[in-house]
């Protein structure tokens, strides 16, 4: 898109995919962080470029992961129009097949499948058994070079990577080809500040699961998540959709 | 009409202020992802459709750019009101074609409305700069001028919000616009285009085409299209 349109002499802003990391420090607030991580990983069934799809667990994080898994197993799936539904189906059968392919790949590459969303594919879902449903899926023991750790899945699949400290987390996230968004969960201001400063990602959340900028700020993805110079919305949009002209005037 | 043959509507294109059929074109089914039931069918635009839309948008641009920005944003004040009034309906349409929960959809409509709100501030946002006496007796100023016809190509996941990252800003700046949303979710953009029409935007200033590769290729190559805003996968974005 970017290359073709630019070759035709057009101005282009091309926003691409993502692989977004949620870094969880040992001092993160368990209940509130879990709620934010659930929304980030499984909101819109993971079909968004700001979805947190890799949970980077720093040091000891057993209580938080246990609380997360309980929520994942109890997530209410069904028709998005039905009251109380927490996650709807995927957009098409073809897209679901693609997401399921990633689950198979994760298993084949040696990740540990903690919650298998395929088990909830064909349940009743409130009378909607014909829909393109799948359950939320969680892998643990994911290595950074596995396909599910690197590629955008665009579905409700969360990969857990364990690291020893914040430095290792930062190195891991900065090693990604993408740079759309990331979040850190911590009660320590110093860790949060250091993470936000050193991370090579364009939209950073601190104890926020989906750091989607408001309309008056730019949607500022980095690296392979964005091709162009001026971002969507905010003041960048005004620059993108206008040409500047300089006028010098002298009156004799 | 029996219950089994209810309301499979055929989606139309919107060009030059008119809703148009695409006769003789293959119609592609749109299913509700929760039920698998077909709720609509959509024709895909060909290069001729893109050319027609681009010409209409360009003709509209020549007039729209002359409308003072203070008047241009009045359309978006009215649009915001209409979107607020119909937010629940838009969220239900969005949920039915995309699958996400009505709550998620409502949140994204709220975000879309915020884009319109910011675009309403265009008289302040578009201001240039000036400096007196940059050289003896010489004053210097910058002004911002619209580009012309701009196009948006948007994904299936946020069919209300992502297009509004683009066209309210583009049109308030004085450009005209062609949107080609994901062929998987044509109904939400149709409803939001109807409301933009009702808000009083002049014919041709906003145009809506559906389709896939052929429409996109034609937009990227069309000489009247000056800018492309795209949201999608990285392999396509590149």
Commentary on this structure:
The complex is a heterodimer of chains A (252) and B (238). Chain A is an alpha/beta fold. Chain A has one domain (18-212): Aldehyde Dehydrogenase, Chain A, domain 2, CATH 3.40.309.10. Chain A is built from eight helices and twelve strands. In chain A, helix 2 (30-42) packs across helix 3 (62-73). The longest helix of chain A is centred in the middle third of the chain and has 16 residues, at 93-108. The mean pLDDT of chain A is 96. With 238 residues, chain B is an alpha/beta fold. Chain B has a single domain (3-237), classed as 3-Layer(aba) Sandwich (Aldehyde Dehydrogenase, Chain A, domain 1), CATH 3.40.605. In chain B, 44% of the residues lie in helices and 23% in strands. Chain B is built from ten helices and eleven strands. In chain B, the strands form four sheets. In chain B, strands 10-9-8-11 form a four-stranded parallel β-sheet, sandwiched between helices. Chain B has a three-stranded mixed β-sheet with strand order 1-5-4, with no helix packed on it. A two-stranded antiparallel ribbon of chain B has the order 2-3. The longest helix of chain B is centred in the first third of the chain and has 18 residues, at 47-64. Chain B is globular and about 75 Å long. Chain B starts with 8 loop residues before the first strand and ends with a helix. Strand 12 of chain A pairs antiparallel with strand 7 (138-146) of chain B, so a sheet runs across the interface.
